[in-house]
Amino acid sequence: MPSPLLPASSNDATNLHKASPTSSPPPAATITAVIHTTIPIPQRETDPDLDYEHLQLSLEEAFFLVFAIEVIEVTDPSEDSEHKAAFSIQDCWLKFAQASVARSPIAKTISLPEFQLEPDNLFIVRYVVYHYYRSQGWVVKDGLKYGTDFMLYRKGMVFGHSQYGVRVIPCHDFGTLLNNQESKAHSALSMQTIQPVMSPTPGSSMPHTVYSWQWLLSLNRIISQVQKTTLICHVVLPQSITPQQLCHPRTALPFYSVVELGIKRFLPERNRA
User: Fold this and answer.
1) CA-based angle 93:97:102, to the nearest 5?
2) Side-chain half-sphere of 94: how many Cα atoms within 13 Å?
3) 3-state secondary structure of 10
């Protein structure tokens, strides 16, 4: 049985060092001093708006959240915060409609007190289409990137690409369209029966000259190149609506109707009968 290890004495350590001249000397003792210091950490400002991201809604998106879902309130930032009151649904309807006219060239000749709401108001026409597709379950986003008014997503932007590009075109009622088609039967372009109006795209105030085949094919070529389908959405304007009915969305929206037209590019090598 091996003997237990015993601590060596100082003489044994000296003799061991002499017996092994090639061995390295014992390491010197190391003294480590630990100094505890406290570094002050600046406190983060407790600003309630510090972590909020900037979110900018279009007029149609904001009004849908106010009117259809009732999840937000719209206020005037110029008013005193203590006495600031949220706009009613009718106030938002009128102010948004007035804002859409204020960014067009015709607003230079119209003063604010003289503003009169018309059935072909740009905000109303666009909101009719926005509300229609939202009620169908589509996620509607702005389509300025592709030259359209709206882009339709099945679930949302984070779940996949959009499937349709929507171009909004206001037009008269069906009776007026039929009369125009009969009177202009010699015209090869039936789209000329749609009267051009101010562009409903935000930031674009130039009037459309005509809705020609060149315009339509150019739009469809852009949309088809990104694997989407072009939708021409006609908003039929009411002809027998009163100003009182037009001043509130609950009484105005039932007078509008939507007619959709899907367009796909014809390829002879793919679409042969």
Assistant:
1) 145
2) 14
3) helix
pLDDT tens digit sequence for 189-244 = 343 333 434 444 443 333 444 567 888 888 888 998 898 999 999 999 998 899 99
* Tokens representing residue 123 in the block: 């905000």
- For 44, counting Cβ atoms within 10 Å of its Cβ (0-12 exposed, 13-18 middle, 19+ buried), the class is exposed
Q: Are strands 164-171 and 150-153 parallel, antiparallel or unpaired?
A: antiparallel
To the query of whether residue 264 is one of the catalytic residues in this protein, the response is no
Conformational region of residue 203, where left means phi above 0, alpha means psi within -120 to 50, and beta covers everything else: left
Catalytic residue among 17, 145, 155, 161: 161
Specify whether the CB–CB gap between 263 and 218 falls below 8 A: no
Domains along the sequence of the chain with CATH: 118-263 (3.40.1350.10)
pTM for the complete prediction? 0.68
Candidate list 95, 141, 153, 208, residue with the active-site label: 153
**Which member of 131, 172, 228, 234 is catalytic?**
228
**161 catalytic, yes or no?**
yes
Each residue of 199-208: pLDDT tens digit? 444 433 334 4
User: Rg of the Cα trace of the chain?
Assistant: 37
Compute, in degrees rounded to 10, the torsion defined by CA atoms 90, 98, 136, 56.
-100
228 catalytic? Reply is yes
